[in-house]
Amino acid sequence: MSAEVKICGLTDEDAIDAAIDAGADYLGLVFFAKSPRFVTPDRAAELTQFVEGVDKVGLFVDAEDAFLDEALTHLRLDLLQFHGAETPERIDAIRREFAVPVMKVIAIGSAEDLAKAEPYFAVADRLLFDAKPPKNSDLPGGNAVSFDWSILSGYKCPLQWMLAGGLTADNVAEAIRISGARAVDVSSGVESAPGVKDAAKIAAFIKAAKGT
Ligand SMILES: O=C(O)c1ccccc1N[C@@H]1O[C@H](COP(=O)(O)O)[C@@H](O)[C@H]1O
Questions:
Q1: Which of 112, 63, 56, 110 has its CA nearest to residue 84?
Q2: Does the reported pTM lie above 0.80?
Q3: Which of 30, 41, 49, 50 falls between 20 and 30 A from 111, CA-CA?
């Protein structure tokens, strides 16, 4: 099965070129200051100024309106990813205020966690299922941690969704097969060090996810 691919946490031109050349469908820009993949809105605009035909996704963690406004003033984002504790009410308000499609992240540790997605069905455009972060992590995502993909097997979701969490070129095909994901998102698994993307790993990941 072939899946769409989002390469997240891009911080330099070479990585962006590598992702586009390898066939990425989405480019992820992390607007969360604690992340080793953080970029300012100004830098994100500079990095993506010549990007065409690939969707740009802004990743935010409990961001306030002023910061969302600042980001969207600097560059056009096709999708806003919310990786914090944003409530359904907050997601609804952001979607109304900024008129950009929104993707809410649901952290999965067990099958029971799928119920947390339901309140977002009416207010989000998409969902992303990621692993729960390790207890002492500073980051709610981007931790190279995966979860039991079979939790998503046969899951009936009314929204389009992506799978993330600890994916690599070596495990993504199996993750897609087991979970039924039609889109996958990766950050750590295509890096040589936290925040440093590796062109060969990006190409291998996309090849594996698309079965090409
Ligand atoms: O990548 C980050 O630094 C990050 C920071 C804060 C929240 C989410 C972040 N990344 C997202 O986490 C998942 C899983 O990433 P990984 O492949 O396990 O490293 C993915 O959705 C990233 O977009």
A1: 63
A2: yes
A3: 30
Q: Which amino acid is at 168?
A: T
Question: Which CATH topology does 4-210 take?
Answer: TIM Barrel (3.20.20)
Q: How far is the CA of 131 from the centre of ligand 1 (A)?
A: 10
Instruction: With residue 200 as reference, give the H or E element that holds it.
Output: helix 199-210
Looking from the CA of residue 167, the nearest atom of ligand 1 is 17
| Residue whose CA lies nearest to ligand 1 atom number 10 | 142
Confidence band (pLDDT; 50, 70, 90) for 1?
Answer: confident
* Mean pLDDT for the stretch of residues 18-39: 98
Q: What is the ipTM for the molecules in this complex?
A: 0.98
Q: Which residues have a catalytic role annotated?
A: 8, 130
Domain-by-domain residue ranges, the chain?
Answer: 4-210
How many whole angstroms separate alpha carbon 194 and alpha carbon 100? 29
